[in-house]
Amino acid sequence: MAYVSGRTYLAIPGPSVAPDRVLSAMHRAAPNIYEGEIVEITHGIIADLRRVALTTQHVAIYIANGHGAWEAANANMFSRGDRALVAATGRFGHGWAEHATRMGIDVQMIDFGKSSVADPTRIAEALAADTDHTIRAVLVTHVDTASTARNDLPAIRAAIDSVGHPALLAVDAVASLACDELRMDEWGIDVIVGASQKGLMLPPGLGFLWFSDRALEVSRTADLVSPYWDWKPRGTGTEFWQFFGGTAPTHHLYGLRESLTMLLDEEGLPNVWRRHETLASAVWAAFVAWGAAGGISLNMSDPNARGRSVTAARIANGGAGALRKWLETEAGVTLGIGLGMALPAEPAYADFLRVAHMGHVNAHMTLGVLATMEAGMQALGIPHGPGALEAAAAAIARGSAPKP
What we know:
By secondary structure, the protein is α/β, with parallel strands linked by helices. The protein is built from 13 helices and twelve strands. It has two domains: 9-16 and 268-400, Alpha-Beta Complex (Aspartate Aminotransferase, domain 1), CATH 3.90.1150; 31-266, 3-Layer(aba) Sandwich (Aspartate Aminotransferase, domain 2). Strands 2-8-7-6-5-3-4 form a seven-stranded mixed beta sheet, sandwiched between helices. The protein is globular. The protein starts with 8 loop residues before the first strand and ends with a helix.
């Protein structure tokens, strides 16, 4: 018997759950796009996007997904034939590099594998070898959505500075923005790539770039940039249409206004980070307990190297694939596939899954997913250790305790 009546739950790493308030804000007639309310709220949105990234620098909004924001970043930073150093820690690091290569950028890849973070020492060594300073930028994911590896951005910035290299530091923060701690100015980041459908709690459709004055200067000579992707009018323009390269994404803007209010003015960014830390800890505690029987493990062994928005894990012998199917068909819960961990045609593809805990998510949602996962393991006869739900509950209790 399937228990799928009621509201289903999409626990995949984007699109995340959109709050009812955000959906309600979007459910309205289209506004005048030449003057009035939509123009006024956009200025506030841009100011609040700076608050999300903790920066005083520039912001550009695109009608695009994260892949479109990659392309915008590449187009503004590089000319054809320029070099990029890519530190890949999962599928999305490779994806950004592939976009760059197809745009005519000369990519030098350091592949740190699928279960490791980037080593700043190796990045410094690669930059030190570039004595002519032909590498224009270092591209790195903050949290790779596939492997869930979380890279140490301040350490990478320090590595760049330690060898006196002028390369820009460009960061894909699609999976970490408004989930993990991220400080653009303090950490010396030149470019941040973001999107609407994860921590910002909106449907897919908006891509974002935050870029420094130094990146702006580099872009003035970039010959890959085209009129639509050019961040200069979007970030420094004086006319409303310039912010969007044409017609504004009106309904997304109404939703974004509501989500930014929820994140920044009601919950507060430090509390948002702490909530994600607590929920992630609960998921990790459950997997550690399940893994006591063997065959179940977290992809990233070091908790400090794990993103706080999504957890990648392995359940051997096809257990992950079987569990995902059972959850969706029998319990109304959808987990993420093990993206990039194995090819779909390989047997190991069914050994991996991801559990998202990003955006508009709370304790009962996360504990509900974990409890339903355990029910599925029992139904399918997947070996697992005891005490997972108790461990997850204890992690929630610890996270809710007042900070000293």
